[in-house]
Amino acid sequence: ALFDGRGVQHLPASDDIRNIFTDPDNPRYIRRNAQGLVPEAVGVNYPVRQQYWLGLPTKRNNRGFDIIIVWNYKTETITLYEFCQNFLSMVVAKDAEGNQRVYLGDEKGFVWVADIGHTDGAGVPGNTGSLRGLVTSSDEDFSFNDSHATFLEGGIPGLGGLSGLAGLSPFLDEKPMGLAGVCVYLKRPGETDWIVRTIWAATKQKIYFTPPLSPAPEVGTEYMIAPIDFMAEVKPTNLSMDKNTKRPLDFYVIHEPEEFDSELKVEILPDFQNEDERAGAEITLEGQTVPGDRVVLMSNIHGRQRIATGRVIYTYVGYRLSNFAPEEPIRVLNLAPTVEVRP
């Protein structure tokens, strides 16, 4: 709810995330104390963005908060951020250049800066090194090697529960941080679930993580460092035509042209369905079998791309946009469907 100093106003946009407060089976269910209160919740006003940020603890951890709900009081929209770290503090302050920033402190003592632009990923902006690839060797349950990588070097041995490591301490002294504190996602060959660990040190081609993983990551294991799981849902709309069914003609994504080939998956969800009928399917196009997922690249210089919608008939339609990857900037400006109204 929103209190403006005179009265309380319900926020309809919050309905879609209501169950994180009411459904104990939801993995994001908000953790409370014995009195039903949430003393670890932290809220800040972010005037430069006209947003209110609320950090909330979930049942997945025992300390700190790992999701943030952002209410934009200008556009009246809600965004939910989810993290692999647990944060204990959040404050709005100015950086060295006088810009307003949101700073977060995690349980391991690291300070993070949110909302700083196209610096997704990890490490120094413009110098993140390798952020994804395949494991080429591993003989320990707390490390893996990628002979093709150029990781950002450095680390903190204490984060891995060690006081030092032979052959590693000299470079740690010269570059004390590196990727320390960043999450690495691992997916073994043939599996679909990601395993999450925290990096405590890295050489040019080796990552050390905690806690240990048994068995050690085998050759061919896929990894991603600091990936962002982006998902945006547009509420179902009837285009102000309640009694009419529609046949979609085209669907356009208008976006900021990016330097990278960021992949944006677009799902079309007619009549309150939760899945796109073509998602994950394979179709035949010009004699070749290709994935049926609707995917566009954000590097398109025109910033305006057409999506094939098919001939499905609907009354209401919603859209879901998603991407799970590191270092893939995405800025969607507008979504524009065109339809044929049917009697």
What does this protein structure show overall?
With 343 residues, the protein is mostly beta strands. It has helices spanning 19-22, 169-174; strands at 2-3, 8-9, 42-46, 51-56, 65-72, 77-94, 100-106, 111-114, 132-134, 143-145, 154-155, 183-187, 195-202, 206-210, 222-225, 228-237, 245-255, 263-270, 282-285, 288-291, 294-297, 304-307, 317-325, 332-342. Strands 9, 10, 11, 12, 13, 14 and 15 form a 7-stranded antiparallel β-sheet that branches. It has a 6-stranded antiparallel β-sheet with strand order 3-4-5-6-7-8, with no helix packed on it. The longest helix has 6 residues, at 169-174. The chain is globular and about 70 Å long.
List strands and helices in order, with pairings.
Elements: E1 2-3, E2 8-9, H1 19-22, E3 42-46, E4 51-56, E5 65-72, E6 77-94, E7 100-106, E8 111-114, E9 132-134, E10 143-145, E11 154-155, H2 169-174, E12 183-187, E13 195-202, E14 206-210, E15 222-225, E16 228-237, E17 245-255, E18 263-270, E19 282-285, E20 288-291, E21 294-297, E22 304-307, E23 317-325, E24 332-342
Antiparallel strand pairs: 1-2, 3-4, 4-5, 5-6, 6-7, 7-8, 9-15, 10-14, 11-13, 12-13, 12-15, 13-14, 16-23, 17-22, 17-24, 18-21, 18-23, 19-20
